[in-house]
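Task: complex structure prediction.
Instruction: return C-alpha coordinates for all chains below.
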Amino acid sequence: MSEIIKPDFSKDPNGLIPAIAQDAESGEVLMLAYVNEEAWEETVKTGRGVYWSRSRQQLWRKGDTSGNVQLVKEVLIDCDRDTVIFKVEQIGGAACHEGYSSCFFRKVNKDSTEIVSERVFDPKKVYNK
Amino acid sequence: MSEIIKPDFSKDPNGLIPAIAQDAESGEVLMLAYVNEEAWEETVKTGRGVYWSRSRQQLWRKGDTSGNVQLVKEVLIDCDRDTVIFKVEQIGGAACHEGYSSCFFRKVNKDSTEIVSERVFDPKKVYNK
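Output:
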Protein backbone atom coordinates (compact mmCIF):
# COMPACT_ATOMS: atom_id res chain seq x y z
CA MET A 1 0.00 0.00 0.00
CA SER A 2 1.90 3.04 -1.22
CA GLU A 3 -0.64 5.81 -0.67
CA ILE A 4 0.36 8.02 2.25
CA ILE A 5 -2.49 8.64 4.63
CA LYS A 6 -2.65 11.65 6.89
CA PRO A 7 -5.14 12.76 9.53
CA ASP A 8 -8.28 14.64 8.53
CA PHE A 9 -7.83 17.88 10.48
CA SER A 10 -10.94 19.40 8.88
CA LYS A 11 -13.25 17.41 11.19
CA ASP A 12 -12.47 19.58 14.20
CA PRO A 13 -13.27 23.32 14.36
CA ASN A 14 -9.81 23.96 15.82
CA GLY A 15 -8.05 21.59 13.42
CA LEU A 16 -6.91 19.37 16.28
CA ILE A 17 -6.97 15.61 16.70
CA PRO A 18 -5.99 13.50 19.71
CA ALA A 19 -2.58 11.84 19.69
CA ILE A 20 -2.02 8.94 22.08
CA ALA A 21 1.58 8.55 23.23
CA GLN A 22 2.27 4.90 23.98
CA ASP A 23 5.50 3.39 25.26
CA ALA A 24 6.98 1.56 22.26
CA GLU A 25 8.43 -1.22 24.43
CA SER A 26 5.93 -1.85 27.22
CA GLY A 27 2.73 -0.73 25.49
CA GLU A 28 1.82 1.49 28.46
CA VAL A 29 -0.28 4.47 27.42
CA LEU A 30 1.69 7.49 28.64
CA MET A 31 -0.48 10.48 27.79
CA LEU A 32 -2.98 11.94 25.39
CA ALA A 33 -2.31 15.28 23.77
CA TYR A 34 -3.44 17.02 20.58
CA VAL A 35 -1.80 17.70 17.23
CA ASN A 36 -2.64 20.21 14.57
CA GLU A 37 -1.31 19.80 11.05
CA GLU A 38 1.96 21.59 11.84
CA ALA A 39 2.66 19.44 14.92
CA TRP A 40 1.80 16.29 12.97
CA GLU A 41 4.10 17.19 10.09
CA GLU A 42 6.98 18.03 12.41
CA THR A 43 6.56 14.81 14.40
CA VAL A 44 6.56 12.62 11.29
CA LYS A 45 9.47 14.53 9.74
CA THR A 46 11.74 14.80 12.78
CA GLY A 47 10.78 11.72 14.81
CA ARG A 48 10.32 13.80 17.95
CA GLY A 49 6.97 14.10 19.71
CA VAL A 50 5.50 17.53 18.93
CA TYR A 51 1.98 18.57 19.96
CA TRP A 52 -0.28 21.61 20.04
CA SER A 53 -0.74 23.00 23.53
CA ARG A 54 -4.38 23.98 23.92
CA SER A 55 -3.68 25.90 27.16
CA ARG A 56 -0.74 27.87 25.77
CA GLN A 57 -2.05 27.97 22.17
CA GLN A 58 1.34 27.20 20.73
CA LEU A 59 3.42 24.37 19.35
CA TRP A 60 4.64 22.15 22.16
CA ARG A 61 7.87 20.28 21.54
CA LYS A 62 7.56 17.93 24.45
CA GLY A 63 10.62 17.95 26.69
CA ASP A 64 11.80 21.50 26.00
CA THR A 65 11.34 22.39 29.68
CA SER A 66 11.72 19.04 31.43
CA GLY A 67 14.22 17.44 29.08
CA ASN A 68 11.84 14.51 28.80
CA VAL A 69 11.61 14.42 25.01
CA GLN A 70 9.83 11.64 23.15
CA LEU A 71 11.56 9.73 20.37
CA VAL A 72 8.83 8.54 18.03
CA LYS A 73 9.47 4.99 16.84
CA GLU A 74 6.19 4.33 15.05
CA VAL A 75 3.10 6.25 13.99
CA LEU A 76 -0.35 4.66 13.63
CA ILE A 77 -3.56 6.20 12.34
CA ASP A 78 -7.10 5.02 12.95
CA CYS A 79 -9.89 4.02 10.57
CA ASP A 80 -11.58 7.44 10.65
CA ARG A 81 -8.29 9.34 10.39
CA ASP A 82 -9.17 11.40 13.44
CA THR A 83 -6.85 9.88 16.05
CA VAL A 84 -3.19 8.89 15.92
CA ILE A 85 -0.82 6.89 18.10
CA PHE A 86 2.82 7.82 18.58
CA LYS A 87 4.79 4.84 19.84
CA VAL A 88 7.63 6.47 21.71
CA GLU A 89 10.76 6.05 23.74
CA GLN A 90 10.15 8.43 26.64
CA ILE A 91 13.47 9.99 27.66
CA GLY A 92 13.73 10.48 31.42
CA GLY A 93 11.17 7.75 32.01
CA ALA A 94 8.28 10.09 32.84
CA ALA A 95 5.71 11.53 30.46
CA CYS A 96 3.56 13.23 33.10
CA HIS A 97 4.23 16.73 34.39
CA GLU A 98 3.37 15.39 37.84
CA GLY A 99 6.42 13.13 37.69
CA TYR A 100 4.74 9.81 37.01
CA SER A 101 5.79 7.59 34.13
CA SER A 102 2.24 7.82 32.75
CA CYS A 103 -0.39 10.54 33.11
CA PHE A 104 -2.81 7.67 33.79
CA PHE A 105 -1.46 6.97 37.27
CA ARG A 106 -4.85 6.67 38.96
CA LYS A 107 -7.15 3.68 38.82
CA VAL A 108 -10.84 4.37 39.39
CA ASN A 109 -12.73 1.74 41.37
CA LYS A 110 -16.44 1.87 42.14
CA ASP A 111 -15.82 3.32 45.60
CA SER A 112 -12.20 4.52 45.62
CA THR A 113 -9.26 5.78 43.61
CA GLU A 114 -5.81 4.25 43.85
CA ILE A 115 -2.38 5.30 42.62
CA VAL A 116 -1.03 2.60 40.30
CA SER A 117 2.22 4.20 39.15
CA GLU A 118 5.55 5.14 40.69
CA ARG A 119 6.73 8.71 40.78
CA VAL A 120 9.90 9.09 38.69
CA PHE A 121 10.72 12.73 39.50
CA ASP A 122 9.66 15.54 41.82
CA PRO A 123 7.81 18.08 39.66
CA LYS A 124 8.87 20.96 41.96
CA LYS A 125 12.51 20.30 41.16
CA VAL A 126 11.91 20.10 37.42
CA TYR A 127 9.53 22.97 36.75
CA ASN A 128 9.99 25.46 39.64
CA LYS A 129 13.63 26.24 39.25
CA MET B 1 -6.55 7.15 48.72
CA SER B 2 -10.27 6.96 49.33
CA GLU B 3 -11.51 10.00 47.40
CA ILE B 4 -13.30 9.00 44.21
CA ILE B 5 -12.12 10.96 41.21
CA LYS B 6 -14.24 11.46 38.12
CA PRO B 7 -13.60 13.20 34.81
CA ASP B 8 -14.09 16.95 34.50
CA PHE B 9 -16.71 17.12 31.76
CA SER B 10 -17.02 20.90 32.12
CA LYS B 11 -13.81 21.48 30.14
CA ASP B 12 -15.43 20.61 26.82
CA PRO B 13 -18.32 22.62 25.33
CA ASN B 14 -20.10 19.35 24.48
CA GLY B 15 -19.28 17.72 27.81
CA LEU B 16 -17.24 15.01 26.10
CA ILE B 17 -13.83 13.57 26.90
CA PRO B 18 -11.80 10.99 24.98
CA ALA B 19 -11.83 7.41 26.21
CA ILE B 20 -9.05 5.10 25.04
CA ALA B 21 -10.04 1.44 24.84
CA GLN B 22 -6.99 -0.74 25.43
CA ASP B 23 -6.81 -4.52 25.40
CA ALA B 24 -6.46 -5.51 29.05
CA GLU B 25 -4.22 -8.46 28.21
CA SER B 26 -2.01 -7.39 25.33
CA GLY B 27 -1.94 -3.64 25.92
CA GLU B 28 -2.87 -2.98 22.29
CA VAL B 29 -4.79 0.26 21.86
CA LEU B 30 -8.05 -0.75 20.18
CA MET B 31 -9.90 2.50 19.57
CA LEU B 32 -10.57 5.98 20.82
CA ALA B 33 -14.14 7.13 21.40
CA TYR B 34 -15.81 9.75 23.57
CA VAL B 35 -17.80 9.62 26.80
CA ASN B 36 -20.19 12.11 28.30
CA GLU B 37 -21.12 11.91 31.96
CA GLU B 38 -23.95 9.44 31.32
CA ALA B 39 -21.74 7.07 29.30
CA TRP B 40 -19.01 7.30 31.93
CA GLU B 41 -21.41 6.53 34.79
CA GLU B 42 -22.92 3.57 32.95
CA THR B 43 -19.51 2.14 32.05
CA VAL B 44 -18.21 2.33 35.63
CA LYS B 45 -21.47 0.97 37.04
CA THR B 46 -22.09 -1.89 34.60
CA GLY B 47 -18.55 -2.81 33.50
CA ARG B 48 -19.54 -2.66 29.85
CA GLY B 49 -17.97 -0.15 27.45
CA VAL B 50 -20.49 2.62 26.76
CA TYR B 51 -19.67 5.74 24.75
CA TRP B 52 -21.31 8.80 23.25
CA SER B 53 -21.63 8.61 19.48
CA ARG B 54 -20.82 12.04 18.06
CA SER B 55 -22.15 11.09 14.62
CA ARG B 56 -25.44 9.66 15.88
CA GLN B 57 -25.69 11.99 18.90
CA GLN B 58 -26.79 9.20 21.18
CA LEU B 59 -25.50 6.79 23.79
CA TRP B 60 -23.51 4.02 22.14
CA ARG B 61 -23.42 0.71 23.98
CA LYS B 62 -20.64 -0.80 21.92
CA GLY B 63 -21.52 -4.19 20.49
CA ASP B 64 -25.30 -3.71 20.26
CA THR B 65 -25.11 -4.17 16.47
CA SER B 66 -21.99 -6.28 15.99
CA GLY B 67 -22.16 -8.28 19.20
CA ASN B 68 -18.60 -7.17 19.89
CA VAL B 69 -19.19 -5.79 23.37
CA GLN B 70 -16.37 -4.65 25.61
CA LEU B 71 -16.02 -5.97 29.15
CA VAL B 72 -14.26 -3.25 31.13
CA LYS B 73 -11.67 -4.73 33.49
CA GLU B 74 -10.03 -1.53 34.70
CA VAL B 75 -10.57 2.21 34.44
CA LEU B 76 -7.75 4.77 34.56
CA ILE B 77 -7.97 8.56 34.62
CA ASP B 78 -5.25 11.04 33.71
CA CYS B 79 -3.65 13.88 35.66
CA ASP B 80 -5.89 16.56 34.14
CA ARG B 81 -9.05 14.44 34.45
CA ASP B 82 -9.85 15.01 30.80
CA THR B 83 -8.99 11.60 29.34
CA VAL B 84 -9.75 8.07 30.52
CA ILE B 85 -8.59 4.58 29.63
CA PHE B 86 -10.89 1.57 29.63
CA LYS B 87 -8.87 -1.66 29.81
CA VAL B 88 -11.17 -4.14 28.15
CA GLU B 89 -11.75 -7.67 27.03
CA GLN B 90 -12.98 -7.21 23.46
CA ILE B 91 -15.59 -9.86 22.70
CA GLY B 92 -15.36 -11.10 19.11
CA GLY B 93 -11.74 -10.03 18.90
CA ALA B 94 -12.36 -6.91 16.81
CA ALA B 95 -12.98 -3.39 18.04
CA CYS B 96 -12.98 -1.72 14.61
CA HIS B 97 -16.09 -1.44 12.45
CA GLU B 98 -13.83 -2.28 9.51
CA GLY B 99 -13.23 -5.71 10.98
CA TYR B 100 -9.70 -5.24 12.32
CA SER B 101 -8.81 -6.04 15.91
CA SER B 102 -7.73 -2.43 16.38
CA CYS B 103 -8.90 0.75 14.66
CA PHE B 104 -5.20 1.64 14.44
CA PHE B 105 -4.46 -0.91 11.71
CA ARG B 106 -2.37 1.42 9.55
CA LYS B 107 1.22 2.40 10.15
CA VAL B 108 2.34 5.70 8.67
CA ASN B 109 5.87 5.77 7.28
CA LYS B 110 7.54 8.82 5.77
CA ASP B 111 6.71 7.73 2.24
CA SER B 112 4.09 4.99 2.58
CA THR B 113 1.29 3.50 4.63
CA GLU B 114 1.16 -0.16 5.60
CA ILE B 115 -1.50 -2.41 7.09
CA VAL B 116 -0.21 -3.83 10.37
CA SER B 117 -3.24 -5.75 11.59
CA GLU B 118 -5.23 -8.81 10.56
CA ARG B 119 -8.86 -8.56 9.59
CA VAL B 120 -10.99 -10.54 12.04
CA PHE B 121 -14.36 -10.21 10.29
CA ASP B 122 -15.90 -8.96 7.05
CA PRO B 123 -17.77 -5.75 7.87
CA LYS B 124 -20.27 -6.36 5.05
CA LYS B 125 -21.45 -9.53 6.72
CA VAL B 126 -21.79 -7.90 10.14
CA TYR B 127 -23.40 -4.56 9.37
CA ASN B 128 -25.19 -4.97 6.00
CA LYS B 129 -27.57 -7.73 6.89
